[in-house]
Specification:
Elements: E1 5-6, E2 12-13, H1 27-49, H2 64-75, H3 80-91, H4 98-122, H5 132-160, H6 169-196, H7 207-224, H8 236-267, H9 278-323, E3 335-342, E4 353-359, E5 365-372, H10 376-394, H11 400-412, E6 421-429, E7 435-441, E8 447-449, E9 455-457, E10 476-479, E11 485-489, H12 505-514, H13 520-531, E12 543-550
């Protein structure tokens, strides 16, 4: 029965009966998968045995451990024959007796199965290594604990078979254990990440940058491991670069590249560890790279987790913001309408600007544009309260000032010093010649663009809502003729790039006069193009606009 792990988004992925290594219910495909993994195991195993010095069957470098663990994590327990076959073929011609070979084979196979069980079966390990916990689990359960199984069974088999003296058991066991540990910390992450991150395009790093990083890392590593002086710490900044810009693929590949160069030069007696014995110097080189690689993977996990959290926050903010704004403006007889909303900066937090256009209980239409103090969940809650209160009050109240007074009472009941907002509320009577009655509670006054090109403010500012139990709110009535336009907006339009630039009211009025004869959508487009594209800057506040225009030939 296959194991299944959960992807970062919670969906089931990479079933352990599945196809990552070609495993399926078809015997031929399964057999090919077994042969392929075993072949890779043997090839890497022979390479490791070439670096065995003190004991021919014990090496300080053992890549097959990482390959075996990755194969069982990705392909499931059904891949154990590949590990057993690979271990058997690797050790069969090493000059030890058959019983010892079988013991080593058993230890290598159980090691991979124990590691896979602890990681996947116990803690629900995700092979993408996108969580810090998964990296630490790979270190603890894969590299430290499961490798003890192979080291203990393998060395015991060598002692029983007479290949190793019992007195040497501790030192040989240490070499075996650390060699296997390196395979799990360097090779396994590279295989797991290679299999789960394709096509490697999620990280911000670009191809040319990757080439520059690879060349720099390879060149620096070659130089460092030809020196007798211990300067290998200089490789850390490049591994940090790999982790920050290329996340798990960069961290895993960078560590594997450094490890390959370090082992090659160290095995040939070069580099800062050359003065030690053959096994010791390889263990030192491998341990250094393993620690650096693990640190790089942790940094990559932290970075990618942060980016995913930021993306989730942006998506949540966008969804919440959309829920606080009408999906589309309703069609109002005799009027053309258009709306605009732009969140501040990158839009990570829910803004406080809102607008709403709806049919009121008295049969007319109501429009509100407002701005609550603050950002985030608190602002979202107050915005929702404002929209609900305004719609409810509009069912029974015809005067805009009374509707805003109801909103003022609701905000005061919040008992919070930060529960403040501004709003301009208008009622629209389109039963005859269109008429508009407006009241403002501390909000920028709407601008009326007459058909002759003159611009005038409509209403009086009034009192900020949520400050005084008896706010100063007045109503002003106006008749609109065909072709005339009213612009409602929030103060984010004026202060978009403050303090570097504060839009003067005369500038906005001049631009609006320039737009005479244009449709509401064209007016908003012109305001956006002319006022909201400051070089190398983002608006510091949310911006909301609604434009109403009486149809040229009202029906």
């Amino acid at each position: 029965m296959g194991i299944v792990y959960q992807r970062a988004d919670g969906k089931e992925a990479l079933p352990f009966r599945g196809s990552r290594f070609g495993v399926s219910e078809e015997p031929v495909r399964y057999a090919l998968a077994i042969v392929a993994v075993a072949a890779v195991y043997v090839a890497s195993g022979k390479l490791g045995l070439d670096l065995a010095f003190t004991t021919g069957s014990v090496t300080a470098i053992w890549p097959p451990t990482g390959i075996a663990l990755a194969a069982l994590i990705l392909g499931g327990y059904r891949m154990w024959p590949a590990i057993a076959l690979g271990a058997l073929l690797t050790n069969i011609n090493t000059g030890i007796n058959a019983g010892t070979v079988l013991g080593i084979t058993l230890g290598n196979t159980l090691e991979a199965m124990v590691g896979a069980y602890l990681l996947v079966g116990v803690i629900r390990f995700r092979p993408t290594l996108e969580r810090v916990g998964d990296v630490l689990a790979l270190v603890a359960f894969g590299a430290v604990i499961s490798t003890m199984v192979s080291a203990t069974i393998g060395v015991a088999s060598l002692v029983i078979g007479g290949s190793v003296d019992f007195a040497d058991f501790p030192s040989v066991w240490r070499t075996w254990w650390l060699g296997d540990m390196g395979g799990d910390l360097i090779v396994a992450p590279a295989v797991l990440v290679a299999a789960t991150h394709w096509p490697y395009d999620k990280a911000p790093g670009r191809p040319l940058e990757a080439v520059a990083l690879i060349l720099s890392l390879a060149g620096l590593s070659v130089w460092l491991f030809t020196l007798d002086t211990t300067l290998v710490y200089l490789v850390f900044p490049l591994l940090i670069w790999a982790a920050l810009r290329f996340w798990q693929p960069g961290a895993a590949a960078g560590s594997l590249l450094v490890a390959t160069i370090a082992v090659t030069f160290t095995a040939n007696g070069k580099g800062p560890f050359a003065a030690s014995g053959p096994d010791e110097r390889l263990l030192l080189a491998q341990t250094l790279v393993a620690v650096a690689g693990t640190t790089s993977l942790v940094l990559a996990a932290l970075t990618s987790q942060h980016v995913r959290a930021e993306r989730a926050m942006r998506e949540l903010a966008a969804t919440l913001q959309e829920s606080l704004l009408p999906a589309r403006l309703p069609k109002v007889p005799k009027l053309e309408t258009a709306a605009y909303f732009r969140p501040a900066g990158a839009g990570h937090r829910v803004g406080g600007d809102f607008y709403d256009l709806f049919q009121a209980g008295h049969g007319g239409w109501s429009l509100v544009v407002g701005d609550v103090v603050g950002k985030g969940p608190g602002a979202a809650a107050l915005t929702a309260l404002a929209r609900y209160t305004l719609r409810t009050a509009a069912e029974t109240e015809r005067q805009p000032s009374r509707v805003l007074a109801a909103l003022n009472d609701a905000v005061l009941r919040e008992h919070s010093n930060t529960a403040l907002c501004t709003a301009v509320y208008a009622t629209l009577d389109v039963s005859g010649s269109p008429r508009m009655t407006v009241s403002s509670g501390g909000h920028p006054l709407p601008l009326v663009l007459r058909s002759d090109g003159t611009v005038e403010q409509l209403g009086t500012p009034g009192t900020l809502l949520g400050v005084d139990a008896e706010p100063a709110l007045t109503d002003e009535d106006i008749e609109l003729r065909p072709g005339e336009t009213v612009l409602f907006y929030t103060d984010g339009l004026i202060d978009a790039y403050a303090p570097r630039r504060v839009l003067e009211m005369t500038e906005l009025e001049s631009l609006l006069r320039f737009c005479v004869g244009r449709t509401p959508a064209q007016i908003i487009e012109e305001i956006d193009r002319s006022l909201l594209h400051f070089p190398r800057a983002e608006p510091r506040d949310d911006i909301a606009m609604v434009v109403l225009q009486v149809s040229a030939s009202p029906t």
